[in-house]
Design goal:
45% of the residues lie in helices and 18% in strands. Helix 1 packs across helix 7 and helix 9 runs antiparallel to helix 10. By secondary structure, it is an alpha/beta fold. The radius of gyration is 19 Å and the shape is globular. The mean pLDDT is 96. It has a domain of 177 residues: Rossmann fold. A 7-stranded parallel sheet has the order 3-2-1-4-5-6-10, with helices on both faces. A 3-stranded mixed sheet has the order 7-9-11.
């Protein structure tokens, strides 16, 4: 039995689907009871609802589990404490494998949510568990949040300079890689940086969207103040907004670039390019 936490999110759903196709027995941990049926429909054989900040929930979810794929809710301010609780419960329950969904370049203290993941990685190194750490780049799927403005105005708005170079990765590739390390041997003690095959500027990304979606698209930088207004109107909390703004400031200064070599090795094929992904989701 493999436990997937944060299973109702886009990453958890994708991982469950791939594991189910491989015939793996999956138990899903979700936050609310209303999410139980949807994850079971994706292929989870069992599902548990509860707050992953609570040790009792972990004990229930980990019963008779051999491996864990731990995804903490995105930008959760208590991610470090949740990770420590998860590790304590995994040791207590005799879990054989612990795979942690981290982030590309968690060493960057200037991005608080990255830094919190590094603290979990540190605890995992000291846990005595057989572990693998996955460090994915930002998902190509995140571009879909701008689909409305791209389709109606031909504008891809980003809150950092359009020359900013970023690595991205297809979520489907990440789910496949996660299934590999969860179901195949030889990945104990590994820390895998997972990125696509290229690091594009936002101008280059807009050009790829334009070519795939058959319409002129240009990248335009918006101010932090404008992005903040949009984010608050969309319902993001103040902590999330400020965390993301610090991330955007980091991007503007340094970019975020990773290598696609490890993902190529894990998948046994080249990782999906951004252009290919754009074509796959074109209207």
């Amino acid at each position: 039995m493999i436990l997937v936490t944060g299973a109702a999110g886009k990453t958890g759903r994708a991982v469950i689907e791939v594991l189910a196709r491989r015939g793996a027995a999956v138990r899903a941990l979700v936050r609310r009871e209303s999410q139980l049926a949807p994850v079971e429909a994706l292929g989870a054989r069992e599902a548990v609802a509860g707050d992953m900040a609570e040790l009792a929930v972990w004990r229930q979810a980990l019963s008779s589990v051999q491996a864990v794929y731990h995804i903490c809710p995105n930008m959760h301010p208590a991610e470090t404490a949740i990770g420590q609780t998860a590790l304590a419960a995994a040791r207590e329950c005799g879990v054989s494998r612990f795979v942690y969904h981290s982030v590309l370049h968690p060493q960057t203290e200037k991005m608080p949510h990255h830094w919190r993941k590094l603290r979990v990685e540190e605890a995992l190194l000291e846990s005595g568990l057989d572990f693998t750490i996955l460090q994915p780049a930002a998902y190509m799927q995140n571009v879909l949040a701008a689909r409305e403005s791209i389709m109606s105005e031909g504008i891809y708005r980003v809150p950092y300079p359009v020359e900013t170079r970023l690595s991205m990765v297809d979520l489907a590739d990440i789910a496949e890689a996660a299934a590999v390390v969860l179901t195949e041997s030889g990945h104990g003690g590994a820390i895998y940086e997972l990125a696509g095959p290229e690091a594009l500027t936002q101008v280059e990304a807009a050009a790829a969207v334009s070519a795939a979606w058959s319409r002129p698209v240009r990248a335009v930088q918006i101010s932090a103040a404008e992005w903040r207004r949009q984010a608050r109107s969309a319902g993001l909390g103040s902590d999330q907004v400020e965390t993301l703004l610090r991330m955007f400031d980091y991007y503007a200064r340094y970019g975020l670039i990773g290598s696609g070599n490890i993902l190529r090795w894990l998948l046994g094929r080249p990782p999906t390019t951004f252009a290919a992904w754009c074509r796959s989701v074109a209207l």
